[in-house]
Input
Amino acid sequence: MKQFYLLSTLLLCALVSCKKEHKEDSMAAALEVRQWKPTDLRSLNHLTEKRGLTLKTDEATPGYIMFHPSEGTQTYLMDLDGNIVHSWSSELNCMDSYLLKNGHLLRLERDMDFPTFDAGGQAGRLREYDWDGNMLWDFEYATEKQLTHHDIEPLPNGNILAISYEVKTPEEAIAAGRDPELVPKAGIWPDKIIEIKPILPDKGEIVWEWHMWDHLVQDQFPEKANYGNISENPRKININVASREATPPMTQEQVDQMIQMGNATSNATVDNRGSDITHTNAVSYNPEKDQIVFSVPGYSEVMIIDHSTTTEEAKGSSGGKWGHGGDLLYRWGNPQNYGRGTEADEMLFGQHDVKFIPAGLPGAGHLMVYDNDILNPDNKFPSMFAALGDSRSPELQIPVGDFGNYSAVYEWALPVDASGAYILPDDGPIGPEEPSWSYMAPDKYSFYSAFISGAHRMNNGHTLITEGMTGRFFEVTPDGKKVWEYWNPYNFHYRMPDGTHPQPIGPFFYGQFRATPYPLDYPAFSGKTLTPISPQPEPFIFKMPPAPEEKDMPEEGGSK
Output
């Protein structure tokens, strides 16, 4: 997501006044890009790509795919021929959906008018619908101090795990050992995990919760209670990690332009740039171990905590089945964060969609994650968007050879001892050193999404992957062979009542948070007739606007 905000800043430089040195840097990069041949470029958003079903082989896994267009209110169930066979809708934008075994749909939706928070993945509302679209439950968790966002997880007991921001004032952040130089005027928004017991039709009881805020360490201010040696406290979270989600300073004019272009939502202000320090974007549950894993792209790590604790035990460092209270049981992705590695040891780069692979599937008990923005050390440009050239073209292209950031999907076995507890060594990075399985494009660079995206293990060992910013879903075999592919053709241009975008999506019109496969024998389909609906939803056909006339082109050293 950091790269997405960098795009916002660079696009703004072509539309509003920037400092002269920024203009000169952007123009120099643009001129350098124009020396490349068209065959050396790759598209970032694939707006002119053929949309719909593009590949179906005999090896494609029978079943259905569920997804929700990012700028719409619909959730679609689709067959492998690309036909929509069932749909649900509401008046609110959908962030994420889960089809329950009883045929009901659980959705995380974007509340109309919550205050305070601005970042991708805003939600604030949990709703449950029956198969026919009748709303059964409508629970709001959106105030000035807290907001559900990004992802939820249905539990076997009928409750729901959810990720939520919670506001900490600048004074609270500094008192907890956050470096004052890293504290925006609006304060910071660390995350918590809550368990909600639905109370129909419109209430919910918080029956368990865990807060990052209770498990911090820092080594800059000895007088504070959480002072300690970072490398000796791998179960704690260093509050002074320089978040990957940090954004460059902006003027109010630039922030307003971000909102207008769909690169930020309406709550964005100059004062809250950088408040979202962790940006937790996925949560998954392992019922066999009663553990929760979540993805923290701000730290480029995934973390596991114990769900068997009481809420009181979750505040401390003892208790629960695994004996560590609410402290981290395991972490992986970036050992620099706990003082035991260098840049060379980093494995994750702004990742999304971490999951425990469920029991009964190949790789059961392993973790799987979509690694978004793997860095190429030979990258000659300071960011993926510094080489865009004429920013008025919505088709974003960059040179492959000198940039070359790319994505991957990783699966890895968790290191455990004889009791099943995770092995955290006394020194050095927490294992494993490498994933046990991975998928990357044969050329690396043709598979890439800097934000959103996901991966899902299927019942035959195949993996369904969502390349989020392009809206591409594809299935691969364990040896990396692509056997099915579909490009989302839908964009419904949904807007909030004030005319702003529900989520930061910018020029990625077909973007998808994730897609989920369901096998033919999934219990929700029992007794259902799944045939293509008529008429099918109307696709959005993107047409490239005409090139600007010469008189409209920016003069060298400035912007028009």
Q: What stands out?
A: The radius of gyration is 23 Å. Helices lie at 2-13, 20-33, 170-175, 252-261. The domain at 2-36+45-246+255-517+528-552 is CATH 2.120.10.30 (Neuraminidase). The chain has one domain: 2-36+45-246+255-517+528-552.
